[in-house]
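Lecture 7 notes: from sequence to structure.

We start with a single chain of 86 residues. Read the sequence below before looking at the structure.
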Amino acid sequence: MALQILCAQYATPNANVDVTLICQKAVSTGNDDIPVNNQFMGGDPDIGVVKQFGILYFLNGTLTAQTAQEGQTVDLVPAPAAAKSA
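Now the structure, written as tokens:
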């Protein structure tokens, strides 16, 4: 699996944090799930406001983008639909 993070942001309308390196470090150890929370992202950039997460990455040469809200987990390499129903 070739997974390269191009850009990742953890943000509110008032604050924005570049978390590209945090996400790249996580996937370099074989992890493909990104928990969208203050602990994983290295802190709370805007206390009391729900954060949004956006990530742009290459997966096996295909450019992919995903977004999520604080409290969710982003699966960068989701299982194929056939595997999920089995």
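The chain has a mean pLDDT of 91. Keep this in mind for problem set 3.
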